[in-house]
Structures are given as C-alpha cells and as structure tokens.
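Note on ligand handling. Small-molecule inputs were canonicalized before submission; formal charges were left as drawn, and no protonation-state enumeration was performed. Where a ligand contained multiple stereocentres, the stereochemistry in the source SMILES was retained. For S-adenosylmethionine, this procedure yielded the string shown in the input block below.
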Amino acid sequence: MLRNTIKELSTTILNNQSDFDTIKNTVDEIHKHYLETTNIGELGEGMQHMAAVPTASGMALSLNHAAACLLDYRRTAKLLDGMVTLIREKQQQHPNEIINIFYAGCGPYAPFVTLVAPLFKASEVQFSVLEINAASIKSAEKLINALELTDYVKEYYTADAVTFQIPDAKKYQILFSETLDALLYRESYVPILWNMLPQVSENCAVIPNNVIVTASLTYPEQEGEATKKEKQAAEILNVREAVKINDGSKSLPESFAPITINLESDDKYYSMIVDTKVHIHNDIWLHRNESSLSIPFEMEIAHPLDAPNVTFFYELKPSVELKLQN
Ligand SMILES: C[S@@+](CC[C@H](N)C(=O)[O-])C[C@H]1O[C@@H](n2cnc3c(N)ncnc32)[C@H](O)[C@@H]1O
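Structure output:
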C-alpha cells in the first residue's frame, strides 16, 4: 500500500534530520512516487503549468515550480519536523480533540498533508486545503485519493488566500502556508498572514511561524582570517510584528515602515548582506543557504560612499518586494 510506503519514508526523514544524504535520497524517492501517481510530468512543459498565477497581492507559483519545492530538501525536512512536532504539542494541550489544520497553498503534492497524515489517525488530525491554482489542487486531490487519505481532508477550496474568508476559522489550531521566497520576493506569505491571522483564534499556531529579514555589514578580511567578519545592522522586516497591527478591519498597506542603515564607519564596510531567516517552529529555522528560501543577497559597498544611508522598505502594492533607496 503506497500510504504505508510514504509513512515509512516520512518517518525516515524525521529520524534523520541532520543527515543530508538520507534526506535527499528519501525525498527523491517520495518525489518519484508522487510524480508517478499524479502524472504531472505528463502535463509537460505546457505554458499554463509554467506560468505564475497573479493573486490579489503577489504571485503564486506555477504548478511545475510548486511541485519542485518538494525537492528543496532541507526546507521539506524541517517543515515536516516542525509540523509533526507542533501537532504532537497541540495534542498534548488539547487531549482527545481533533487537531484542525488549515493549509493555504498546497501545491500539486500537498506534502504537508500527504507526508503528515499517514503518521496520525484521521480521528486525530483533519485538514482543509486551499490553493489558487486549479490544476495544482486537482493534482493534490488525486494524490490524496491515491494514498487513501480522503478521510483526513474535509474541504478543498480553489481560492486566493489573500482575500479568502475561512469558514469556521476559529476551529483551526494550525495554519500552514509556505508561500514565500528569499527576500519575501513576489509570493504572498505576508498578505496571506495579514488576511488570515485576524480570522483564526489567537492560539492558532502558524508554520512557518515567522520570517525575519535582516541586513548585516561585513568588514574586509584581515590577514590570517578565513572569513569576513560581520555584524547585524538592522532588522528590516519582522513579518509577525508587521502584521500584528491588523485586527481584521484594516486593508493591506502599500508598504511597511522604512528602515534606514548608515554605512559610514572607520572600518570601511566591505559589503551588506540581506538575509531571510525563516523561523519554522520552536528552535527549527532555515539558516543562511540551507534552502532556496534563505539564500542571502550580498551587495558590495563602494568607497568613497556616494550616500551615507540606504533605506529599505517592503512594498505590498503594486508589487510585493523589498525595495532599496539611497
Ligand atoms: C512555494 S509553493 C509550496 C507548495 C507546497 N505547499 C510545498 O510546501 O511544497 C506555494 C503554493 O502556494 C500557492 N499559493 C501562493 N499564493 C497563493 C494564494 N494567494 N492563494 C492560494 N494559493 C497560493 C501556489 O500556487 C503554490 O502552489
């Protein structure tokens, strides 16, 4: 039975979090099964499966790109670890209750249903899944049926998570939405949390729990030093702090407050590095370069300085991206 095979593979990932080769081989094997079962490979290179889908704020990945997220190995392994740990914590806090999970942006494999549900009973966890891309949700449903996980999924919504009103929102203990890219570029994690957090209960946990974008300044290498020294200069955006101001009555702002960084120093900074720190759950983070989501962006600083200050701000309208001014 395929469901048992996936349960074993999922358990292997959970038990080998620090063994990259095992994670990679196991995720590759899961991918092989998912590809065979959904046949999305046969949808081929069709334009409709390669093009990003516009949302009310930000862009959603194409079916093919969303499928490829599974192969971001450490991302998948850490999200799986975070999700299973969180469900077990919620079970402890609410013994004998069903843990209800809202999954916004499931992609064609809904991995955080299909890898997670086999580890629990349907009387323990229930999912509602939402996806803007109709072809992706169709494929997710096909896979869920093939894995005989239909009992775990209450609802399928084809909708935009940026504007969606969640029916019976207060019943969810967990909101999952990995709808982000490095530097929070283009995808809708921020507008989705802006819309959904005021709807769910205050105790509803989120995975990833937060994203913090920081700027660090590096000093030139000294003789005999292997790496450049660096120090954090500013927190450019802390998503959970930024969306807190919405109690459900506010519309999405055009941008969040700007942050200015002064580049003057006797040390003559060599470069500025902007990091995307993805906090998944508890002490589980995606650190620099562990995933495509946490690739840093480094800018060299030319001396003499043209301007002593640079200003960053996160724009939400008309496009979703971090902007820099100097
Ligand atoms: C980065 S992929 C992740 C797919 C899968 N959950 C995983 O972790 O492998 C994000 C998915 O969210 C969907 N998505 C992005 N923005 C969305 C929105 N505003 N409403 C609904 N779905 C969205 C995309 O279409 C894509 O399938």
